[in-house]
Amino acid sequence: MEAFALYLLKSVIWLTGFTIIYILFLRNERYFRLKRYYLVAGILVSFIFPLFTFHYQVEIPATELTYQGIVPSDSGTGSAGQRNIENKSFDINYIFLLLYLAGIFFFALKSVRNTNML
Fold first, then answer.
1. Which domain covers residue 42, as residue numbers?
2. What distances in angstroms separate CA 41 from CA 23, 49, 54, 71, 81, one per listed residue?
3. 12 near 47, Cβ under 8 Å?
4. Is 31 inside a domain boundary?
5. Which end of the chain has less neighbouring CB within 10 Å, N or C?
């Protein structure tokens, strides 16, 4: 059943792509025969393309890690003379999540304001 759900999801994605292209480029065209062929072909292709899957393998060469310079100490107390060195890496996914949530909040507030609820 999961395979069928995945097939439907892929089909919907393809159909959405064809619909977006139709809305952006072909909605105001006067070539009705072209539009008709495009819409029928888009529906057929969106049912056929999800049946094909492509698999590829990426090989990343492993590099040997060497530690040079700082030797970690055995004491975990962190006295006044020693500082604990922490890895403070900056996670870009966290920023994207915050931007996404801010956008959702902004457009939800704008939608509520436009419906005269506020």
1. 1-52
2. 15, 12, 22, 65, 73
3. no
4. yes
5. N
Q: Please give the model's pTM, rounded to 2 decimal places.
A: 0.47
The pLDDT value given to residue 74: 57
> Which residue bears the tokens 């959702």?
104
Whether residue 60 is contained in a domain is answered as: no
19-29 residue pLDDT tens: 999 999 988 98
The answer to whether residue 68 is domain-embedded is: no
Phi, psi for 112 (deg, rounded to 5): -65, -40
Check residue 98 and give left, alpha or beta (phi > 0: left; psi -120 to 50: alpha).
Answer: alpha
Taking alpha carbons only, the member of 75, 93, 97 closest to residue 84 is 75
Q: Which pairs with CB-CB distance under 8 Å and at least 24 residues apart come from 17-21?
A: 18/42, 18/43, 18/45, 18/46
Q: What does DSSP assign to residue 51?
A: G
Question: Is position 74 within any domain?
Answer: no
- Residue pointed to by tokens 């040079």: 68
